[in-house]
Amino acid sequence: MLDDPKEKKELMDKLILAAGNKEGNSRFAEFRLFFTTENLFQLVGISLQIVLGLGIVTIAILGLIQPMWLSTFFSIIGSATAMVGVYLCFQFFSRNSVFDSLINKAIRRVIQSQN
């Protein structure tokens, strides 16, 4: 219990102000915040990981890799890579506030109207 409660209150006030910001209500402003350089790099990396993982699995299934044990190994590695890429894609889209649910937006409006 060494934390300062005033710091927590200030952080909560900043979050409430950021949630109720009037200039960020348009869809264009939300998508502009979503497509930053960092987010674009992450999306490109995630999509490359999924495509390359599925490509390796496809090559292994077609039999272009000749020793059967090596083909099996690459198939397992490729499918694991594709699964991790899909999981990262899910995490990426779920942590961004662009796709907030109607309930979350309603809660923000209620908090803003109380202040």
Description:
The model has no long low-confidence stretch (mean pLDDT 78). Helices cover 78% and strands 0% of the residues. It has five helices and no strands. It is an all-alpha fold.
Draw up the topology in text.
Layout: H1 5-19, H2 27-34, H3 37-62, H4 68-95, H5 102-114
Helix pairs in contact: 3-4
- The residue fraction in helices comes out at over 70%
Low-pLDDT residue spans? none
What would the principal axes of the Cα set say about the shape?
A: elongated
Q: What is the mean predicted local confidence, pLDDT?
A: 78
Question: What labels would you give this structure?
Answer:
115 residues; mainly alpha
